[in-house]
Design a protein that fits this description.
By secondary structure, this protein is of the alpha+beta class. The chain contains four helices and six strands, in the order αββααββαββ. Helix 4 links the parallel strand 4 and strand 5.
């Protein structure tokens, strides 16, 4: 070391203050990371995540055979809840009719609305649900749950409701 020089070099060869080099870079990085303004929060509650496919693109419509609802595959395509109730109310196509399949969903059941809720689906149809046969209820419920497997169906219409219906 040379005596009498202000700001003389340290023995390790670094000149100036220790804020130069790796220490300075570390301090800058720490300031940037801690000063980003994001504060921790509690988890935000929401609906349960869906399991399985949200929508089946190859749906089966349920028709009635010998008093019971039976699934019949339809060509690939997407159906909405309104489409399902309208199709069930219109009845099976010619090929399905020739196999003895029918519908018990009344023609005035459409239009319908289908809303997703925490427990499954809320379905409002345009006819009194208390007048539907067991087979008609199963046609609607099983077809909708085949498209969106989300739990249960609450079927409403005509001032009445059938809660927590499952495909049986």
């Amino acid at each position: 070391m040379r005596p009498g020089i202000v700001g003389a070099a340290w023995d390790n060869g670094n000149r100036g203050t220790p804020w130069r080099g790796p220490l300075r870079q570390l301090v800058i990085v720490l300031l940037l990371v801690t000063g980003c303004g994001i504060r921790p929060t509690e988890p935000i509650p929401g609906l349960e995540a869906p399991s399985g496919p949200v929508e089946n693109t190859a749906p089966a419509l349920y028709w009635v055979s010998e008093g019971k609802a039976v699934p019949v595959s339809r060509p690939l395509g997407s159906l909405s809840g309104y489409d399902v109730v309208a199709l069930l109310a219109q009845g099976p196509n010619g090929a399905e009719q020739s196999r003895g399949l029918t519908t018990e969903v009344p023609f005035d059941a459409a239009p319908a609305t289908v809303d997703r809720v925490a427990s499954g689906l809320d379905v409002s149809i345009s006819t009194d649900v208390s007048l539907l046969s067991r087979a008609a209820v199963q046609q609607i419920v099983c077809t909708l749950l085949g498209i969106q497997a989300v739990g249960t169906v609450n079927l409403r219409g005509g001032g009445h409701s059938l809660e927590l219906q499952k495909c049986a």
